[in-house]
SDR family oxidoreductase
Amino acid sequence: MSRKVIVTGGAGVIGQAICRRLIAGGFQPVAADLAEAVDALDFTDPSLEGTIAVTMDVSSRASVEQAVAEVVAPGESLAGVVNCAGILRDSFLGELDEAKLELMFQVNIAGMARVTDVCAPLLADGTAIVNVGSLTGHFGRFRGASVYGATKAGIAAYTRYVAEELASRSIRVNNVAPGVIRAPMSPSMARVSGGEEVSASYAMLKRIGEPHEVAEAVEFLLSDRASFITAQTLLVDGGVVAW
């Protein structure tokens, strides 16, 4: 059986960490991302050896279909899908920008749905989908993240419904919801979170997370070690939401 796993947002910091962990777990990751992000991938990095890169814009059904057709041969199946593509734009009340609103829904929710819709028929029975949400879907202390948080809460709901639809094929669908993870902060993320020091103060563990810690959870849920887990959200947040 093919060991290919499509990882949307695969050229990002968390996406690359997921690709590395999938390689270690015996999978072949397909890093699917925007053209400029794919072009910037460093394939001289030994830890990414074997990764396939493909240009994909999850806001376009045609782009998703074309990318999948490029990397999945006729008759070939997929061993999994990781929906990691996501975008955050601040959305303070009174300053709501229609373009930001549309972009977050098109990428975070509709994009995930497009990729899943295209890829689900290609998944081998008994495989898995892992969606990457956010603690913002379960936590309300990041002012200005209301729309982003709404899209991430939607991922948890989408996960449960799709898990039921695919259960007859023994395909498991779960959601990993990271807290603040160490990566270059966009201006929007810095505004809504208050920065790394403030974000760390919210966690029981008093630190922010590392990309590999999210990747470990993703690979576990894709693997046979999680064979009786489906329709769940796993928070990888250092204990933020628990208190």
In short: The mean pLDDT is 96. Helices lie at 13-24, 35-39, 61-71, 98-119, 146-166, 187-193, 196-202, 211-222. The two ends are 43 Å apart (CA to CA).
